[in-house]
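Example record for the data management plan.
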Amino acid sequence: MNARIEDYALIGDEQSAALIGRDGSVDWLCLPRFDSGACFARLLGDENHGHWRIAPEGADVCTRRAYRSDTLVLDTEWETADGTVRVTDLMPQRQRAPDVVRIVEGLGGRVTVRSTLRLRFDYGSVMPWMRRVDGHRVAVAGPDSVWLRTEPAVDAWGEDHATHARFTVEEGERIAFVLTWHPSHEKRPPLIDPYEALEHSVTDWRRWARRCRYDGPHRDAVVRSLITLKALTYAPTGGIVAAPTTSLPEQPGGVRNWDYRYCWLRDSTLTLGALLNAGYQEEAEAWRDWLLRAVAGDPADLQIMYGVAGERRVPETDLPWLPGFAGSSPVRTGNGAVDQLQLDVYGEVMDSLSLARGSGLPTKPHMWAMQRALMEYLESAWRQPDEGLWEVRGGRRQFVHSKVMVWVAFDRAVRTMERHPELRGDLAGWRGLRDEVHREVCEKGFDRERNTFTQYYGSRGLDAALLLIPRVGFLPPDDPRIVGTVDAIRGDLGHGGFLRRYDTEEAGSEIDGLPGAEGAFVACSFWLADALHRTGRTKEARELFDRLVGLCNDVGLLAEEYDPVDGRQLGNYPQAFSHVGLVNTALTLFGGDEAG
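Corresponding structural encoding:
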């Protein structure tokens, strides 16, 4: 097993994604969607849970690997005693069915290569029936069917419940493997040309990347982050998953293992801003439209997350046959946090739709009516305690960030009506509630002794989400309470030069109801850089940003968290929230936003 999360690279087709290790093994792939059952689940178990490795015979990890510039096409190379070989991996833009294309190319000498394909459907629990059909290998089990072919053909055989191939390549020779999934009750979809698919994928990705209008420091990292966000987009609906994985641990060997293959409202404003400011209006509009469809219905039923098509039911289940990455169990599918109350999501939705309207995205006829319904519900609901932004499982509290986002909801409603007086709504009432929430947060959520806002009313603990207070306009950046909060958070939550979300070690069982700790939270560390810049410490902000960019692995990807002690990435991967943070902070620091 690949020992570290950052050992993996990503390929995808904007409907699903695969993770490929340094050893040339596809260890994670869910088909046909991000949230479908995995047919390769070695990432969370061992080889018997499914994987597909192509590498020189007897070789271990690769010599080098990299994406082709401004694409999601991965080249992995091995230098051996007999020569050099490259494996090019991609998932072409989908026509009818998802394909994984793996092209083996000789670069020098004569190299013997092995392919081992071990399919296991439903997260490694179902062994398919394999047979030959028209020169192809076909695997079928229940609703799933996978076809494997090579071009040109190579001999393959079955052994040890896997499909093996052994062949040689010389300089200039290429052999393409194509794996295609389709529902088992349907006919095999039309065959793709793997070499044309490679050419088109490179062209399409580079054309897309050229739309990025950021041209400051670390542009390569910004473009890679935007490509990653595009790869995590479910193209049919515009929804963006938080990550393509489940149960990669926040603490190796621990229980903080969650399924992130869904779309969080928490991410909506920051994601929308990143796309709009980087020049991707079409993607921003698709995300906005997904948001409108997902939240449609009774405002009291607003959820914190949804499926990629807006599904509401994502029940949490354990998969006991999988031991977990680095022995981290349980492995979970679904996410029980879907049933939590998080008042901040009302502010996120209102802020996102306000940003969309102000950025010139075409409005929808029903958009304001839906927003008005959300506000009418929030008029009475805002005083409730909730589980907060971080989905704690230790009981509801009056979280300060949640109340700040309630203020954002009322503020954006007021501002929208002031700019568009033709819209109907309780303008005076919402102004009054906006002021009331502001007073309450400043009175109950602020520790005057330490000059800092706190995690929840009456607590002494801190929360990195408080760094967003100046960003959303609750208080100006030069307010002494903001400066004090930034300094307190940096002091109390600092971890190896980065930032934790909150203190799990001191208040763990009380706050989030879980044992163990976690690493530095990457997105929060980007928020700290933003806050330092806004409070006049731009030099420190840029130094922190440089260190954060340095956390990217060799192919530019970031997980949810980072352990500065062991120097390893933690949590689900690659993480949209982390890459959104990178893009937004680059735009803040180098996009013309003046500060000290």
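Summary line stored alongside the record: The mean pLDDT is 95.
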